[in-house]
TrEMBL record, chains A, B:
Alphabetized InterPro entries for the sequence: 4pyrrol_Mease (IPR000878), 4pyrrol_Methylase_sf (IPR035996), 4pyrrole_Mease_sub1 (IPR014777), 4pyrrole_Mease_sub2 (IPR014776), Dphthn_synthase (IPR004551)
Sequence positions that bind S-adenosyl-L-methionine: 9, 89, 92, 117-118, 168, 226, 251
GO MF annotation list: diphthine methyl ester synthase activity
Organism: Erythroxylum novogranatense
Name assigned to this protein: diphthine methyl ester synthase
Amino acid sequence: MLYIIGLGLGDEKDITLRGLEAVKKCVRVYMEAYTSLLSFGLSSDGLSTLESFYGKPIIIADREMVEEKADQILSEARYSDVAFLVVGDPFGATTHTDLVVRAKQLGVDVKVIHNASVMNAIGICGLQLYRYGETVSIPFFMDNWRPDSFYEKIQRNRAVGLHTLCLLDIRVKEPSWESLSRGKKKYEPPRYMTISTAIEQLLEVEQGRGGSVYDENTECVGFARLGSEDQTIVAGTMKQLLNVDFGAPLHCLVITGNTHPLEEEMLDFYRVKAETVNGNDHGNA
Amino acid sequence: MLYIIGLGLGDEKDITLRGLEAVKKCVRVYMEAYTSLLSFGLSSDGLSTLESFYGKPIIIADREMVEEKADQILSEARYSDVAFLVVGDPFGATTHTDLVVRAKQLGVDVKVIHNASVMNAIGICGLQLYRYGETVSIPFFMDNWRPDSFYEKIQRNRAVGLHTLCLLDIRVKEPSWESLSRGKKKYEPPRYMTISTAIEQLLEVEQGRGGSVYDENTECVGFARLGSEDQTIVAGTMKQLLNVDFGAPLHCLVITGNTHPLEEEMLDFYRVKAETVNGNDHGNA
């Protein structure tokens, strides 16, 4: 059996009892590295904390490994219980559909253990989840590569008053251009887009496209480390949020659509205050 | 401190370790009754199972109680730790924003402990969560009250190829019309909309409105008891799903938009089979 287990958004205590039970009976435990190294502070220290918490070793599986060694993982899962741990929910912002499809094709049983993901935890800011339109991704702009297909999507959402969740780019274990050209893989240091960068890019695209979809006075909500003990949530205009220090990643951003009075009342608790700009924490809702 | 704790979608084992820790230290534990009575099989038996699991009594709080006794709950939370348990995620399909707003206004600290909700757990069918448009609710049609505002929303989603999550009506502890007219509250038995009823209503509205937004050949995915051990997930056309016996509630329905090849591959595992019509289970993904 292949157990795909969501770990939730905070730390080792956000696993469900069902998930922990499954981990405990698995003979091998893989952990998706894409966001986990960050979210769980998985320096070698963090990893050993988690290993002693589970009482067994964890194999960190980066994307390359999942792609290259999927057959090995799946053949282990055919005859024994194997866990694949995923930050958030297994089918949240990043997806593990491919691994599930390959498992099913090989006749390996799969069991999914759900958990919170960014997609539902953003509900904490008070904007109703059923009032969101399509989710967009904001990629890091490069000198000659500035993809802005998110613009039309935000436009469509705002045209009918819907909120937009913007997922911000994460670059982990990206081979450097230089190393690729030399035929030997070396990796760039990891990069996580901040809310400031996202807003700068959004405003740049608006200026270029000129569709008046949003501007620096558009109300947004910024989230950092959502679901963890030190999460920061601040509501304000794009211009205001540009100057807020949200601290360590991961960040995400919601562009508000039309709001109802109850949504406004809740947002009021998160509105930008002078001291936030110096990095003070807003704590949990 | 008021802890608002998501219980996830299955049974008592779907609470997170963080959530269980919080419940254990609370002096009083309320549980939202709106969907919980059903999801957790909380007949008096189920309730006592949960109570012995937590090692303390649980006060079932229906909507009336939450509205009428919010002040009492909050004043308890001002001087001691109080838990308010919610099926799914606290800000999932149903919302507890109002309670949080009142707490904050009274200066009561609130801590939210997230969990899986229908909004992210539907990812298990393989349709990517970022390819969904606005979520719609399908209310029970009555003789002279057939609200169909969901139609335009589905139309907008499908016009740009997005999937639509349809949340199906739940009527728990609704005062009967008869009792209201007599000035003495008596309650209707609980009703949970099935996928068949939802599809019948959807097709009726399409026939009346004639916008060719969808028809009986439109591909959908039906979910029953999502996230629980005996969940059933079946993909097929509206016409096919009309004849599938999904069993006990809760049900929800996804109307697919344009699908990518990987989404199709995953849906293939759930496609309607002859035997499903007789109520056989599809198990977990």
